[in-house]
């Protein structure tokens, strides 16, 4: 009986958290039109969220391109298909690795920054002061950051994929000696703009929604203590990463299940 009671308590707690998170997300969506009227705030947050994440995104994309080209070359030469290296690398990056890895890095860098910022504003009673002055903190603080995250994530994912393809070119053409024309031409003929690149952009936008919404929720609902902010940043990385991986499976199954 105690085990069953404990299971029921855990289930009710999870349902309560999910319901509270769903209500928070709906309220955040309702506040988006107000943020569009103050687009200068959104631009500031795009700089804070996106521009300051460029270094880790570009460095990681270049490294992934290097390693992916080497690994794919060793595998493809076994079957005499080394000329397909450019196509395999391109599809792997624009379909999967670009959106997913960029989102995980975004959650670790920008997500934790957002959570800590909102959490410290709550700990410093800035959020409460806005409410006392009849200013909706969701419209003034949360919504511009949410919109900036949605805009920044596809751009960062595209840059990740582009620099990864460039890194693969350096390894495949300049180091290994694959023909440069073949490396690019097979990508032009084998990559579909809407099916491959377009679906990758859609993925990155969904991941941007997940990472930014989780970061803002954890910061807004955290306990107004240093320990609470620290735990909230940890929960942001874990929850956002799991959400990205789970949604990636669902989106991949929906987008690429049929030819």
Large-scale geometry: elongated
* Main sheet record: none
Q: Segments where pLDDT lies below 50 for 5+ residues?
A: none
**H-E order:** HHHHHHHHHH
What does this entry look like structurally?
With about 260 residues, the protein is mostly helical. The protein has one domain (about 55-255). It contains 10 helices and no strands. It has helices at about 1-30, 30-35, 40-50, 55-80, 85-125, 125-130, 135-175, 180-190, 195-220, 225-255. Helix 5 packs antiparallel against helix 7, helix 5 (about 85-125) packs across helix 8 (about 180-190) and helix 5 runs antiparallel to helix 10 (about 225-255). The longest helix is centred in the middle third of the chain and has 40 residues, at about 135-175. The mean pLDDT is about 85.
Summarize, please.
This protein has 259 residues and is mostly helical. The chain contains 10 helices and no strands. Helix 5 crosses helix 8, helix 5 (85-123) packs parallel to helix 9 and helix 7 packs across helix 9.
Notable features of this structure?
single chain, elongated
